[in-house]
Amino acid sequence: MKFLSSFLALILTLALVSAASVQAQPGADDIIARSLETFYYSGDDQRTRATMRLVNPQGKERRRVMTLLRKDLGGAGEQRYYIYFHEPADVKGTTFMVWKYPAREDDRWIFIPAIKLVRRIAADDKRSSFVGSDFTYEDVSGREVGDESHSLLDETDLDGRPVYRIESVPKAKADYVRRLSWVDRERWLPLKEEYYDGRGELLRTFTADAVREVDGHWTVTQRTMRDAQSGHHTEVVYDEINYGVGLNDDLFSERYLQRPPRQWIR
Amino acid sequence: MSRECKHLVNHPGIVRKWVCYPRQRDAVNPSLGARCGHPWPQTPSAGGNAPTCVVSPALTRQTPSILHFALAGVLAWGAGLPAGAAEAPPLEIPEIHGFLQAHGAARLGGVDCDPGTACDLPFNEQRLQLKAEGGGFAGALGYAGKIDLLHDAALGESEADVRELYADYNADRYSVRAGRQVVTWGVADLLFINDTFPKDWTAFYGGLPLEYLKRGSDAMRLDLFPDFADVQLVLADFRPDRLPDRERFVLPGQAIQAELDEPSGLEVGLRVSRYVGSWDGALYLSRTHYRAPALRQVGAGWQGGFPRLNAVGASLSGPLGSGVLSLEAGYYDSVDDRDGNDPAIGNSQTRLLAGYSRQIGADTTLGVQGYVEWMHDHAAYRRTLPAGQPERDELRGVATLRLTRFQMHQTLRLSLFAFWGISEGDGYLIPSARYAFSDALWGEVGANLVVGDRSGQFGVLGDNDNVYMTLRYAF
Known about the structure:
The structure holds two protein chains of two kinds. By secondary structure, chain A is α+β, with helices and mostly antiparallel strands. Chain A is built from four helices and 13 strands. Chain A has one domain (27-258): outer membrane lipoprotein receptor (LolB), chain A. In chain A, 17% of the residues lie in helices and 45% in strands. Chain A has a 13-stranded antiparallel beta sheet with strand order 6-5-4-3-2-1-13-12-11-10-9-8-7. Chain A is globular and about 50 Å long. Chain B is 7% helix and 45% strand.
């Protein structure tokens, strides 16, 4: 009887230990899901002002300065984005709006101030460059966990931060066939990503160059995407970031595409 | 006196008219001696005279009434200032931007031009655009002005063109914009059904940047935002289209000099729009005038006016597959020629359009449109059509294609826009390449090429093929 109870205690202990270890090392899908949540969904809404530097291999630089507004609708992943371009001068006043849906194509509109035209635009967000940068639309507004199959490679360190290294393979045809990501084990932010083509050649590298806590949310405040093939790279610096600022749903409408809300666009 | 008729060059979105006007119509205002630069119809080149048009006295009286409207609007909604507006600093310092732009177009082919036509270089201009915008009272007030200082070397002229100059008042559920402003309606691409606002076809056919296709309206625009929809009311003074003229274009037929009587009184446009799920729906109503003149012979001379037009229509645009589907329809009620017996005035029409655009590769987008114009009372039109004139079809079909490809991190944009006049057997191709040397400087080369039947609405411009180049430095 004593033997039996000892045996049960051992089983129970083993079960607990194994449960604890499962909890300590979540599955790859959970890690990516949490990373996407932290990177793209922090807070109920967000206002940022960002400067994007597009640098060609010769070091010649172009600049985009924009205000981005984002609001999450409910918990199902639906989001609204609004982007106002301050610079360059030739596109100043251009606004861009995305209604993002978790399970279908996003709706997108652009307003071109020179002709006062609001136009719905068709664009494949996985392949389209965002305003000529090395980021795609998808890099800006996020992808879904289910778009790729994920596997956890190992736990390691990256520049002094503890990270999970994850391999992701897109389920549908994409411009890359494999992505490696380094996800911070404590802050859940992606610190680095590498995209590879079918021949194993590196295509693009994402790096989170500066991370800090803003309004209680760990936030990447500076990021770079490098095109390994062309040598072109794009650096984004977030000059102003605020969460939970109280954006209204109706801000994300044709009305404000045409007349940017001065309260938020500064 | 024999009637001499010919058709005006026009765009598929605008009714083509016969330049003869056999019936006596309302008395035309006597000339006040005021001259304006309306380019159509053009004088015979021999004299080299500027074309004349008569400014109606009623028109000049209308401008203050718009200001009254604007003032009344501001006062009426003054109580609805956004929160914080009262404490905010009154006016911000305006931001000044603009650009320097050079544009030239060279005629292609050995064309015999009239002596007064800028033949080899129909477009050769340099312009400085200054743009100022600002606001105040926490966004409750806004203002913008855009003025072009233009040197037109092709015609040896200089002018200051006020392209936009307006003030905004923004309340919680309303906004008012008063002054010269561009209004764009509809979902079609370079075909116009419910967008009855003034356009500059001279700039378009000359390859100027697209923004020059739209002319500002002197208007008061009121936007209301009730929960069920967005409602836009536009009250505007009449402004005509700027049509291809003989100073730059080689056109068939004889030149005619005419005095044009511009309509007085406000034009009214109403647009009601809302989202229906992922679709954008809109209804349109316009009480306006044709913006190309209808001319009649009076004694030895010609006089012209802009006949009344009512337009009603709808549009819908939304996702289909991985692209965007656009549908638009409109009915043109030709008020002054409802029975279709007046060959000088376009008959009533129904216009239908379907378009689809989607991305077909990395940074490559394809758009196609099908457009139909159905002329009503076609039998009456045929009956009254002057002898010897080519007859227009009851149904006129146009297809368009737009192919745009970005390369080199979107510094290079390659584009092709093509109109194909299905029923008239003509076409119009606009290939172009634009390269951004930096954020401030871009250059574009392109061409305007007309092919096919010379009696078609595009084909009539067949002697005006050109290659153009634009260089813009923005600051």
